[in-house]
């Protein structure tokens, strides 16, 4: 039982470490899940969203500013 | 007492008789029994059956049939179903189409139809940049708050203002349109049966001339998709009415499709985020469900695979 022992001593032994691990993993999971799902969503909707067509209109504005 | 017993005896005798008859009929020949059954019994049974069937039919005729208050013409032609890409569960609006649709609304629809529930700010980051929208809002005049003298002045529009209606009120709109009120288009996709399909079919469904036999009232136009087929709005989308800034050919169907998608956005501006949240929620809940199934099996495995054995106590023999 070396692995379970290692997990026990490193994580569950102290409550503070345990709680910190829970919070940290929650944040890490949220960020990674959101990043991954947003990437999938954007690939499904490539070329349809505002951020895909925004550059067209921004470039035009800059040209107008130059004039 | 005496009368009762007298009555009872014959009835028992008849019962016995009929019992004996029936057993005999089943054991020997049915033909004999049918021939011997009295005519009035057959007649009564037939009449009762006929009465029951007749009353059921009469009741169905009165109350059972589906009632149609309107003729098919008054219902309007059912719209053709189109495969709208933005209505799939994992697709957002095509924002380039929204931008084109808003152009169609501004240049064609806005002369009669209001869009009063949509503020200028809601276009920012959806189909226009901030500067474009500010310029567009400033083209319109709005009432100010009363000043020190209580006068209400005019000011250019801001992003927080709502799109102004073409008419001051419904009465003015009716007066300018021959008594017909152009409906507000903010929620028209949600407010009409058929939604996008209905609006698209209505916009593209004007025939060149009304079919023979169709009654079209004075000042009305024929459109089979409009309930009643007589619509005060004439055909407005013709090829090339609008010139798109992105070079898309402005055919009638292209403009109708774009403006329909735009109106769907006006009715459901939250759709993109809603679908994204839904996909995320389904993904997460699928994982949680899988975990819960695993936990259930983990907890139940020893309970389901155990064997309960009764071993009787070994006591002293008697």
Automatic annotation (TrEMBL), chain A:
One of its GO terms (cellular component) is mitochondrial inner membrane. It is found in: Mitochondrion inner membrane. It holds the Pfam family UCR_UQCRX_QCR9. GO terms for biological process: mitochondrial electron transport, ubiquinol to cytochrome c. It is a single-pass membrane protein. Keywords: Electron transport, Membrane, Mitochondrion, Mitochondrion inner membrane, Respiratory chain, Transmembrane, Transmembrane helix, Transport. InterPro entries: QCR9 (IPR008027), QCR9_sf (IPR036656). Belongs to the UQCR10/QCR9 family. PANTHER family: CYTOCHROME B-C1 COMPLEX SUBUNIT 9, UBIQUINOL-CYTOCHROME C REDUCTASE COMPLEX, SUBUNIT X. Component of the ubiquinol-cytochrome c oxidoreductase, a multisubunit transmembrane complex that is part of the mitochondrial electron transport chain which drives oxidative phosphorylation. The complex plays an important role in the uptake of multiple carbon sources present in different host niches. Component of the ubiquinol-cytochrome c oxidoreductase (cytochrome b-c1 complex, complex III, CIII), a multisubunit enzyme composed of 3 respiratory subunits cytochrome b, cytochrome c1 and Rieske protein, 2 core protein subunits, and additional low-molecular weight protein subunits. This is Complex III subunit 9. It comes from Penicillium malachiteum.
TrEMBL record, chain B:
Binds 1 heme c group covalently per subunit. Signal peptide: none annotated. Its EC number is 7.1.1.8. InterPro entries: Cyt_c-like_dom, Cyt_c-like_dom_sf, Cyt_c1, Cyt_c1_TM_anchor_C. Residues 96-249 form the Cytochrome c domain. It catalyses: a quinol + 2 Fe(III)-[cytochrome c](out) = a quinone + 2 Fe(II)-[cytochrome c](out) + 2 H(+)(out). This is quinol--cytochrome-c reductase. It comes from Penicillium malachiteum.
């Amino acid at each position: 039982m070396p692995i379970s022992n290692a997990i026990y001593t490193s994580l569950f032994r102290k409550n503070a470490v345990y709680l910190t691990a829970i919070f940290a993993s929650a944040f890490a999971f949220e960020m990674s899940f959101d990043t991954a799902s947003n990437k999938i969503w954007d690939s499904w909707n490539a070329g349809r969203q505002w951020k895909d067509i925004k550059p067209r209109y921004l470039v035009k504005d800059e040209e107008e500013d130059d004039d | 007492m005496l009368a009762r017993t007298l009555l009872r005896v014959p009835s028992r005798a008849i019962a016995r008789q009929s019992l004996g008859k029936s057993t005999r009929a089943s054991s020997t020949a049915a033909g004999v029994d049918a021939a011997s059954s009295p005519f009035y019994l057959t007649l009564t049974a037939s009449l009762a059956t006929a009465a029951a069937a007749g009353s059921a039919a009469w009741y169905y005729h009165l109350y059972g049939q589906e009632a149609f208050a309107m003729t098919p013409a008054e219902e309007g032609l059912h719209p053709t179903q189109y495969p709208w890409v933005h209505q799939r569960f994992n697709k957002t609006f095509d924002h380039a189409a929204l931008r084109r649709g808003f152009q169609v609304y501004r240049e064609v629809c806005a002369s009669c139809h209001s869009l009063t529930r949509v503020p200028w700010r809601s276009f920012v980051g959806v189909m226009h940049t901030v500067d474009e929208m500010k310029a567009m809002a400033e083209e319109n005049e709005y009432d100010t708050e009363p000043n020190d003298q209580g006068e209400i002045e005019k000011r250019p529009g801001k992003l927080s203002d709502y799109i102004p209606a073409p008419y001051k009120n419904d009465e003015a709109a009716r007066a300018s349109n021959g008594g017909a009120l152009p409906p507000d288009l903010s929620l028209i996709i949600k407010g009409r049966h058929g939604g996008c399909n209905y609006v698209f079919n209505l916009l593209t469904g004007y025939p060149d001339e009304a079919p023979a036999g169709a009654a079209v009232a004075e000042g009305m136009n024929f459109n089979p998709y409009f309930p009643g087929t007589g619509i005060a709005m004439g055909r407005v989308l013709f090829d090339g009415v609008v010139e798109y800034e992105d070079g898309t050919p402005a055919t009638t169907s292209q403009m109708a499709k774009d403006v329909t998608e735009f109106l769907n956005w006006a009715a459901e501006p939250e759709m993109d985020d809603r679908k994204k949240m839904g996909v995320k929620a389904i993904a997460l809940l699928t994982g949680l469900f899988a975990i819960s199934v695993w936990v259930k099996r983990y907890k139940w495995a020893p309970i389901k695979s155990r064997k309960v054995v009764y071993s009787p106590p070994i006591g002293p023999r008697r």
